[in-house]
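chain and backbone:
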Amino acid sequence: MSGAGSILRETVIRATPRLLVISDESASAPHSPGKWSPKQIVGHLIDSASNNHQRFVRAQFMDTLVFVGYEQDRWVAVQQYQTTPWHTLVDFWQQYNLHLARVINAVPDDIRYREHLTHNLDQVAFSTVPQGSPATLDYFMRDYVTHLTHHLRDILTPPV
């Protein structure tokens, strides 16, 4: 089975050209009322990459998987992703995630697969892990890719 870093890299490489053909105007329009626009979703994915980049690096020096959360809606709003040019967002998203794929691939197996009973993946993971259940950094890195893929589907699958 391919590792999370390789899967992330392939996902980003496949998605980037599909994202770049979306016009700035289309990327500015939410698919449904009250939802984020594609620009805001990619901005959220940039924020996710930023937060998880730090988490994945710091986890290699910690005895737990306890991480600070962040207020997603407020981060998207204050960074004004909605008014940022689409190609700028996609380029930054692509480069950040290709870097993150390298970071993920560089994690040694003993750190990647070490089980932690102390974690807050019940709060910060996309697919949560209950408190008291063991969690690994590998699970959390794969969860990051699952989260990214979920949001890419939202952007690249036209509404019905």
User: Anything to note?
Assistant: The chain has a mean pLDDT of 96.
